[in-house]
Amino acid sequence: AARLLGPPARFEASKLKVLFMGEEVGTPSRIVPRTYTLSHCDFTANLTLTISNIIPRDQLKGWYKKDDVVAEWTEVNGNLFLNVHCYVSGPNTLSDMAAEFRYHIFSKELPLVLEAVLYGDSDLFNSRQDLMDALVRVYFHSSSKKYNSTECWGPLKDAALGKGVEKINGFVSASKESSHTPKFWGSPKSIFQALFTFLL
User: Fold this and answer.
1) Where is each Staygreen protein domain found (predicted)?
2) What is the C-alpha to C-alpha distance for residues 11 and 38, in angstroms, rounded to an integer?
3) How far apart are CA 59 and CA 40, in angstroms?
4) What is the pLDDT of residue 189?
5) In this structure, what are the phi and psi dihedrals at residue 120, rounded to the nearest 5 degrees?
């Protein structure tokens, strides 16, 4: 609840631990396949970024109970995309009540996630400056139709700075004019859901 009330967390390189899994992952010779799994500790605010050629299933056990974020590079018709996956809510009623809370937390902290990826995989981004123009697509996974959605946050260089987003035909596109501030506390229902989730 405090994470939602306060300003977005600031990225601190000293709190990031980077793990490379796979023989060729440490040397940025290719982009696809390449995945990132970012996990954090609520008590210390330490971050762990795992970079690998595949999404490590062991690390994602209990994904629906954690706030880990998974990202992967994909190529479509010669264009590279960074797809980010966030688990918002599951099939049970209690998780569905927390969907709005978790959706806004992920949206608020996404720039920090992208900063961690840029810093942790800096060798790749230093050698491939063109990747900063790749579009970031965010997949929010939820049993709720309202929050089970895909958003386009624009080029990586803008998304990492927390540029705003605007919905267009059910999707979201980057907006340079507005800041990405979650409109969460506008209703008593939202406040109740946040407090209820916190007490769980």
Assistant:
1) 10-159
2) 13
3) 12
4) 46
5) -65, -30
Spatial contact of 49 and 112, defined as CB atoms under 8 Å apart:
no
Q: Tell me how far apart the alpha carbons of residues 58 and 68 are, in angstroms, rounded to a whole number.
A: 12
The CA–CA distances, whole Å, from 151 to 139, 147, 181 equal 7, 11, 15
Listed residue (4, 25, 33, 2) closest to 108, CA to CA: 4
Average pLDDT, 10 consecutive residues per value, the chain (200 residues):
58 93 73 90 87 75 72 95 90 68 89 96 94 96 88 95 56 41 42 42
What does the block give as tokens for 97?
């009540």
Q: What per-residue confidence (pLDDT) applies to 55?
A: 73
**What is residue 171's predicted lDDT score, i.e. its pLDDT?**
46
Amino acid at 189: K
d(CA 161, CA 46): 21
CB atoms within 10 A of CB 116: 25
Residue with tokens 């959706």: 103
